[in-house]
């Protein structure tokens, strides 16, 4: 009774380990959360990432049903995918020639679960760095501040950073008319 279920994957994409992939990842999860791109995609080639970067658009606030989605949660998910994909490209083998980053978004049991998998790093797992006043190094601090909870797991040489966010309650279907 009341057991937690694993969230259901609503989308997955594997991106080339280039800076342009960061924008593509943001658009990908934004569209998934807004219900515009539900489904699974195995990979995106460099031409698709370039085209997506050229086609980037702002989300029309009219597209967001305020009774279903808290825009802050959407902003938090988009910020965290941006930070984690950028970190994967900057600090792991994903940023090397031929490197890849995988982004997965799942939903269920009142939460979104974002996962970003990289090609592995020789210097360990992502972690929150001590604040020393440097211009960089705040990515995981941002993840820690925005996610309900987060962590890292290893899959062979790969690291997968996961982060969870509250999901809105599902909107009830419209009531059926009652016969007179």
Written account of the structure:
This protein has 180 residues and is α+β, with helices and mostly antiparallel strands. The chain has one domain: Heat Shock Protein 90 (2-Layer Sandwich), CATH 3.30.565. The chain contains 4 helices and 5 strands, in the order E-H-H-H-E-E-H-E-E. A 5-stranded antiparallel sheet has the order 1-2-3-5-4, with helices on one face.
| N-to-C CA distance | 39 Å
Could you give the count of β-strands? Answer: 5
Topology order in helix (H) and strand (E) letters: EHHHEEHEE
Structural class: alpha+beta
What keyword list fits this structure?
4 helices; single chain; 180 residues; alpha+beta; 5-stranded antiparallel sheet; Heat Shock Protein 90
SSE inventory with pairings:
Elements: E1 8-16, H1 20-33, H2 46-54, H3 71-91, E2 100-108, E3 111-117, H4 139-146, E4 149-155, E5 158-166
Antiparallel strand pairs: 1-2, 2-3, 3-5, 4-5
Helix pairs in contact: 1-2, 1-3, 3-4
Summarize the structure.
This protein has 4 helices and 5 strands; from the N terminus they run E-H-H-H-E-E-H-E-E.
């Amino acid at each position: 009774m009341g057991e937690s279920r694993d969230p259901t994957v609503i989308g997955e994409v594997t991106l080339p380990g280039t800076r342009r992939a960061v924008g593509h990842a943001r658009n990908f999860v934004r569209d998934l959360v807004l219900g515009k791109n539900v489904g699974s995609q195995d990979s995106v080639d460099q031409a698709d990432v370039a085209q997506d970067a050229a086609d980037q658009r702002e989300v029309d606030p009219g597209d967001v049903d305020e009774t279903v989605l808290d825009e802050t949660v959407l902003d938090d998910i988009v910020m965290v995918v941006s930070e984690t994909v950028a970190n994967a490209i900057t600090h792991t083998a994903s940023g090397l020639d031929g490197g890849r980053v995988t982004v997965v978004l799942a939903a269920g049991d009142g939460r979104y679960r974002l996962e970003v998998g990289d090609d592995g790093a020789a210097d360990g797992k992502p972690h929150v760095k001590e604040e020393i006043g440097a211009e960089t190094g705040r990515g995981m601090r941002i993840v820690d501040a925005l996610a309900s909870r987060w962590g890292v797991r290893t899959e062979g040489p790969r690291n997968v950073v996961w982060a969870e966010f509250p999901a809105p309650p599902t909107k009830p279907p419209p009531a059926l008319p009652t016969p007179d």
